[in-house]
Every structure is written in C-alpha cells, then in structure tokens.
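Re-running DUF1684 domain-containing protein to confirm reproducibility after the cluster update. Everything else is unchanged from the original entry.
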Amino acid sequence: MSTYTEQWQDWHANRERELADPFGWLALVSLDWLTDVPATYPAAPGVWWQDDEAAYVDPQGAELFHEGEPITGVQRFELVNSGPGTRVSAGDVEVEVARRSGYLIRVHSPKAEALRDFRGVPAYQPDPGWVVTGTFEPFAEPRPTTVGAVTPGLSHVYQAPGLVRFERNGTEHVLTAFNGKTGSGLNILFTDATSGVTTYPANRSVLTAEPAADGTVTLDFNRAINLPCAFTDLATCPLPPEGNHLPFEVTAGELLPHERSES
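Result of re-run:
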C-alpha cells in the first residue's frame, strides 16, 4: 500500500469518526425558526424568540447551560449571519443556536436515528492523479459573496478572498474560494459532472492549506467532502458560488451517502 493511500485512509477514518460525534450533524433531530413571539418547541427546553439582532431563551425552570455556566435568566445570543453557531446544553441534548438571515435552533441528540444507523461514508478509491496544483489569485479586498442554500428562500453571505485557477486536460478552470473554516486555508464549494449521479447533487467541498507565498495551492479532490445537508434535511448548507461547476467528472472524494442513495 502506498504512503499516499495510507494517509488518505487515516484521513477518511478520522472523517467518519467526526461524523459519528454524538452531538454532530448526524445527531440532529429538529430545526425550528424563531419568531419575535416567545414560544416553546417540542425538542428544546425553555422559551425561545428573536428580534432583529439576537436570539433569546428564558429557561422557565429548565436546567440550561451555556459555555459551562447555568442560564438563570433570559440569555441573549447575538451571532454573525452565516457564521458559527453556539450551543446550549439541556440534559442529554444540545440546542444549537445559529443565524441564517433569521435565527434558528437545532437540537442535537445522541439518540438520533441517523446517528444510530450511520454506516460510514462511501468514497472513490484514492487516486494521486486527483491531487491538483493551482494558483491562488487574491482580490484587492475580500468580496462579500451571496450564494443560495439547500433551504428554499434562504441565502448565505461569505467573504471570498480570491480565485483559484488550475488546469485539467489542457483546459483552465477557475473557482471562487471562501475562507477556510479554521481561519486559515481556503474552502472551495463546487459541483461537477458526477453531481446528482454518484455524488450529492447540491455541493461538495474541498479544503486547502494556506497558499504559498507565490500563490501555489494544492487541491486534493480525494478529500472532497459532503456538506451536512448530504446527510440530513435539517441542515441549511450553502450552494456553490456562480461559476463553481466543473464540466467534467471528479471521480474522487466522497460519494452520495448510503442513506440518500437508498432513499
């Protein structure tokens, strides 16, 4: 077995462990959009609402914790639109609060059916031929870029620091890149000719390390991953930016999850 294949298998095994997190994406059991009227929701203890700036919860006797501290009165959560959410612990579940234009709450439970039935993520066999060298071209200033979402009527706005250019079979392709999820590197959402055939139709994502000083960047399509919406209808994943469709088959990376292909 080649060193590359071994490294990919280690990466893939770690990816599956992350997906099997008892409070991860496969643990979602509900999604509710908050309104300006305080309300209760079946899966989330407490009373929840929002205004134009923030989301709120009143425990109303429920034992709720945020960042390890008990919530004893009305708690306010002001979050960045399309940015990271925050979690409220409530017994054996966690309530995720997120801002996606408006505010939503999603309950993560280790007893979720999707988590219980998870059998791993099918993927193409690793092929070093899908490790592509490209060039990152930064914009003078990051550009706010609006994209659609798998949830009808919803949109996301992300900062695009620049473009990545690469060649495949003698033809140049250009993809808009977003900032990496960990604060470094790039996150590239794309579709290709396998989308809706062997891979999830809406999107896949390939993450890169920080580009080199000369702009060189490596795209390893063997590590192209599904977004959460490939596994659950309770996710609000973004669609790729306009132009991020590759007109050829990227026969690398994660395939359509078992649960989607069987349904």
